[in-house]
Putative 3-hydroxybutyryl-CoA dehydrogenase (Metalysinibacillus saudimassiliensis), 283 residues
Amino acid sequence: MNIQKVMVIGAGQMGAGIAQVCAQAGFDVKLNDMKQAFYERGIGVITKNLTRDVEKGRKTEEEKAAVLGRITMSLDMKDAHDVDIIIEAAVENMEIKQSIFKQLDEIAPKHAILATNTSSLPITEIAAVTNRPAQVIGMHYMNPVPVMKLVEIIRGLATTDEVYQAVEDMTKKLEKTPVEVNDFPGFISNRILLPMINEAVYALYEGVATKEAIDDVMKLGMNHPMGPLTLADFIGLDTCLSIMEVLHEGLGDSKYRPCPLLRKYVAAGWLGKKSGRGFYVYE
Ligand SMILES: NC(=O)c1ccc[n+]([C@@H]2O[C@H](COP(=O)([O-])OP(=O)(O)OC[C@H]3O[C@@H](n4cnc5c(N)ncnc54)[C@H](O)[C@@H]3O)[C@@H](O)[C@H]2O)c1
């Protein structure tokens, strides 16, 4: 299968990054969001990343212009009518994702692959609302997308080998490393990462140490590039909470219960870096 035209749903932190790496690899990209202001925020981030690449000598002005020239704005799901693959990166919510997939299934060409960047939601359950479960797959990028090499590719129950192979080939064209994973809550990355972050929040909640001390222990003692509370702020505390809920419900084990402090921060709108405040305050 020859993938050339890509549509990305959601121009947030992940969707913008995915659109950027696809355009850098020569794919034509439609970047979709619900409002023009959301698209503009996304394309603004991409432009800033590319400008930094030019300043650091990693790209020329011409290359930057060519990448931006391959990304077009979409405010209507109907723009999916002529693409080969759609990568959904809207919010981490099953109802919203199923509603998007239902619409895409009606609009997208018969051959098109419907991929989701979900951090934890079951691919099989998203695929079940479409008439093409064999062409639904998880394509889980890491944050920040332009920097991180890994893409977890998750097979739903019905995903065919041909579709898996097409997505793996595309991932390699993006100069990323694909890793094949089966469809279980949290896949591999978040099944291991999020309980660690949640435990760090518990340590803060129980007064074991300050947030700075918790982060220092994991950075200096375990050689992690950033502490778990800083990382949680980068991921988004709402996304962290959603993933813990999926692990808790999907695996049915109380060891995955989200920390009450995490719930409290999300309820307060302290969502991390994207909202200006999480465990830390951002300018
Ligand atoms: N943040 C991370 O570190 C990370 C890492 C890997 C995967 N993910 C997953 O990627 C997805 C997006 O996360 P994010 O951090 O980019 O969130 P975000 O809040 O930054 O962006 C989500 C974007 O989707 C848009 N959106 C919502 N509903 C939409 C709809 N119906 N149609 C079109 N656009 C819609 C929003 O307007 C917003 O711009 C989630 O499923 C998340 O779990 C996140």
The chain has a mean pLDDT of 97. The chain is about 45% helix and 15% strand. The pocket of nicotinamide-adenine-dinucleotide is lined by residues 9-15, 32-34, 38, 89-92, 96, 100, 117-119, 140-141, 143, 235-236, 239, 274 (CB under 6 Å).
